[in-house]
UniProtKB/TrEMBL annotation:
Signal peptide: 1-20
Keyword annotations from UniProtKB, A to Z: Membrane, Signal, Transmembrane, Transmembrane helix
Biological process according to GO: non-motile cilium assembly
Transmembrane segments: 156-178, 190-214, 226-245, 257-277
Recorded topology in the membrane: Multi-pass membrane protein
Domain of life: Eukaryota
Record GO cellular component, one term: membrane
Source organism of this protein record: Mytilus galloprovincialis (Mediterranean mussel)
Protein name: Transmembrane protein 17
InterPro entries: Ig-like_dom, Uncharacterised_TM-17
Subcellular location: Membrane
Domain Ig-like: start-end pairs: 17-103
């Protein structure tokens, strides 16, 4: 037999056992109580157990057992059968039921929580006298999740646009005043008064708009952000479009260029501002409705378990 054939056979020896599937279940032949020992059975559809065996789980999903070597001998131990291997969890408490566990055999893995499907409908676990049925993980996840922290709904594109617009606004004002001085003697009295009024109103509103928009989006304050968006849509956008498309007051090429950039800023901020306000309002409405039922941010673990379930 040549070398290539030997290599192929050795490769098949390594691959074929890994084609077997693995899955683990809870040995639910008894009712579990606080301090009991629970057995998680990992079944291998094939020969067991010549390959590496590993159990992961716990609060950090770390290695609990690797080929019979436990990370904590007082908490975990292993039993090897003909077609399966088991993880024994000693001194069970309520937190052990909330973690995910994974059994690995070679390159095959099976990951789930103790109470997630598939689970025997008759499985009833007792943790400090607390009854947890098969539907408990869904309710636990839904009510415990808000305690992990708050979601940030600040709109990043809007914040970036406002940031760069703050630096561009002084340049726009300077360029506008310079071009206005150049064409001052060529303008009629009507357009002199009109342009002066537009420049004054636009400058004042721009300072207010950029400030309240920047603060409102960064601090997630709907009133400030909504006020900035209204100033953008109702005042700044019509004024900049008037300056850009009205050619009667001798619109210079340089003046047109700076107006185009300012108009792009305003249009982009109007679009992003709309979506930012909608997202922020929806988030705060959802948060308000959640707090109608319970103060999820301040509730303690003991209060949570006592409120959600009845002690038997």
């Amino acid at each position: 037999m040549n070398t290539k054939a030997v290599a192929i056979i050795n490769l098949l020896v390594l691959i074929v056992p890994n084609l077997a599937e693995v899955s683990w279940v809870v040995n639910n032949t008894k009712e579990f109580k606080n301090g009991d020992t629970m057995e998680l059975i990992c079944t291998v559809t094939g020969e067991c157990c010549t390959l590496s065996r590993t159990w992961n789980g716990g609060p950090s999903f770390s290695i609990l057992m690797n080929d019979g070597v436990a990370s904590d001998n007082t908490k975990y131990s292993e039993i090897v059968h003909s077609n399966s291997f088991s993880l024994l969890i000693h001194n069970m408490d309520k937190s052990d039921f909330l973690y995910d566990y994974r059994c690995s055999y070679g390159f095959n893995v099976s990951t789930r929580s103790i109470l997630s499907p598939p689970v025997n409908a008759h499985l009833e676990t007792k943790v400090q006298g607390l009854s947890i049925g098969v539907r408990s993980p869904v309710r636990l996840d839904r009510h415990k999740k808000p305690k992990s922290g708050n979601e940030y709904v600040t709109n990043l594109p809007l914040q970036m646009a406002l940031f760069f617009n703050i630096f561009y606004a002084p340049f726009w004002l300077t360029a506008t005043l310079v071009t206005f001085e150049v064409k001052f003697s060529y303008l009629s009295t009507l357009y002199l008064i009109l342009l002066i009024a537009i420049y004054v109103v636009f400058t004042i509103m721009e300072v207010v708009r950029l400030y309240v928009g920047f603060v409102g989006n960064l601090a997630e304050r709907v009133p400030e952000l909504a006020g900035s968006w209204l100033l953008t849509v109702l005042i700044q956008l019509p004024l900049i479009l008037l300056l850009l498309f009205n050619t009667q007051p001798l619109l210079l090429p340089f003046e047109r260029a700076v107006h185009i950039v300012e108009a792009l800023f305003i249009v982009f901020e109007a679009i992003c501002g709309y979506f930012a306000i909608r997202t922020m309002v929806n988030y705060q409405v959802t948060k308000f409705h959640l707090k109608q039922f319970t103060d999820l941010e301040n509730i303690t673990d003991d209060e949570y378990w006592q409120d959600r379930y009845d002690y038997s």
